Amino acid sequence: MRTLGKFSIITLLPFCFLLLASCARIDDRPDLSMYQYTDTRNLVMFVYDAARKVEKRGLSQIEDFKRNRSLYRKENYYLYVYKTSGDNLFHAGVGDIEGKNLLDITDVNGKQITRLVIESLENKNNPHGWVHYSWWEPGKFYPVPKSSCHFKVSTPEGAELFVGAGMDYPHEEKEFIRIAVDSAADLIERDGEKAFHEIADPKSQYIYRDVKVFVFDSKGGTIISPVIKNSPLEINFIESYDDAGHQPFKRAMEEIKNQDTSWQVFMERSRERRSLIKKVLYLRKMQHRGETIYVGAITNLPQPATAD
């Protein structure tokens, strides 16, 4: 056996693989299998490809973005690049903010957008750095719902950046509520009851658009309500019915006896369609102070006219 000093090549192999794994962030092509919509998958790849360019060429790539600005502004989204300090380096949608620090910028609902992005990049449950907030379409004058994905990049010069882009009026992906619920469960596990206040805060990552993470106990009693705030009224989740007479929470709790999570489809009346549409519940079981509790959220399922 060939040796290197006191260590054999075989001895060093595990350390080599460990080093490679720790560097495998942008180098790994994103897994897109969790997304239901082509638009979402295209957005992730758009950001990923731009992030790879920045990782390879460093800060000089920013100048290339500026010279070719139209290539990075698509019909439904546009690219931006920030330092993790909040300094904007490039923005294909609103060039006026380039060179400005937006670390403390908030949307119309008080969400600290840049700080939520930075938080998302350190969240193991959120591999593509999704953040949901309100923004405005360039040239318009009112806020619209937006979902943006991000990749963190370390440049050859040693700069720490994030590259991102977001869609106006995004599709509601099942993956989005999976991220929110799993992140909320981790927060409860780490911070205990202190976490409940943050999860119920409309400015947090756990509430966006019509999605609200909720928590209830093993009897169905409310800990964090999805519909009522600061009220003595409670929803009994287990006894709740959908508009087709199904009990999705009861079904989920039956399924979750033998596993940690459950997805349940149910029906809800649509205000726009004036008919029943499919919704999906994601529920996670966990232990808190020696008791079983359930963390969950609900979102839309793709409807026949829009799913692909």
Protein architecture, described:
This protein has two domains: 138 residues, PAS domain (Beta-Lactamase, 2-Layer Sandwich); 127 residues, Beta-Lactamase. It contains seven helices and 14 strands. The strands form four sheets. Strands 4-3-7-6-5 form a five-stranded antiparallel β-sheet, with helices on both faces. It starts with a strand and ends in an 8-residue tail after the last strand.
Structure keywords:
elongated; 308 residues; five-stranded antiparallel beta sheet; disordered N terminus; Beta-Lactamase; alpha+beta
TL;DR of this structure?
27% of the residues lie in helices and 27% in strands. With 308 residues, it is α+β, with helices and mostly antiparallel strands.
Note the topology.
Elements: E1 3-4, E2 7-8, H1 9-23, H2 38-57, H3 60-67, E3 79-83, E4 88-91, H4 113-121, E5 131-136, E6 143-154, E7 160-168, H5 174-191, H6 194-199, E8 207-208, E9 211-212, E10 214-217, E11 222-224, H7 248-255, E12 261-269, E13 276-288, E14 291-300
